Structures are given as structure tokens and as C-alpha cells.
Amino acid sequence: MIDQTKLDELKTKHGDLFIISKDEEEFVARVPRRPEIMHLVDKGAASGYGDMLRLAAACVVHPEGVDLQLIFDGMPGIVIPLAEKLCELAGLSKGAEAKKA
């Protein structure tokens, strides 16, 4: 679990952040930016694990560097739900609601 002092430092540096938990891992991440989402959307069904890995690595601000890489190496599958949650935070979802005007 990240301590509040470190979280405050990260918020000062990166702005609004989210804590994403999966299994026993905890990630602090920013919302993906438009170019990062555009890359995934432009590739559509052709986007794959490498694209998800790039998105997660770009948006996760803690842990970082070697520590993040070790988590991804030890549990490579964790990248997929992490990237999916980041896309959800950016407003990318499979469904939307509509009603007759």
C-alpha cells in the first residue's frame, strides 16, 4: 500500500490519479491521454498485448521503472485488466446509453 506522503508527491507531479488494485498488486496511474487512446482505437482489433503493455507502462506512475517491470515480468497477465481499467477511466467502453429525444 502506498503511503499518503508519496501519493501526495505523485499527485503534485502528475495531477489526478487513481489507485488500481489487482490481486495483491496496487498501481497508481493517471488517465490515458488522447494520443495513447487514439493509438489503441486506430489499431482496433489488431491492438494486442504489446499495445496494452505500452499503455500501462505510460500511465502507471507507481511503482515505476524496474519495480514495475518486475511485476509485469512476474505476472504478465496483469497487464490486460490494468490496461482495460485505464481505458475505462478514459471513457472508452463498449457500451453507451441512448434515449429517444
Keywords:
13% strand; 101 residues; alpha+beta; globular; three-stranded antiparallel β-sheet; rbstp2171
Describe this structure in words.
This protein has 101 residues and is α+β, with helices and mostly antiparallel strands. It has one domain (4-89): rbstp2171 (2-Layer Sandwich), CATH 3.30.2220.10. The chain contains five helices and three strands, in the order αββααβαα. The chain has helices at residues 4-14, 34-43, 49-59, 65-74, 79-89, and strands spanning 18-22, 25-29, 60-62. The protein has a three-stranded antiparallel beta sheet with strand order 1-2-3, sandwiched between helices. The chain is globular and about 50 Å long. The mean pLDDT is 89.
CATH superfamily: rbstp2171
Helix content: 40-55%
Which quaternary structure do these chains form? single chain
DSSP strand (E) fraction?
5-15%
State the separation between the terminal residues, measured CA to CA.
47 Å
Biggest sheet descriptor: 3 strands, antiparallel
By DSSP, the count of extended strands is 3
Structural class: alpha+beta
Order of helices and strands: HEEHHEHH
- Cα-based radius of gyration, to the nearest Å: 15 Å
The CATH architecture category equals 2-Layer Sandwich
Name the overall outline: globular
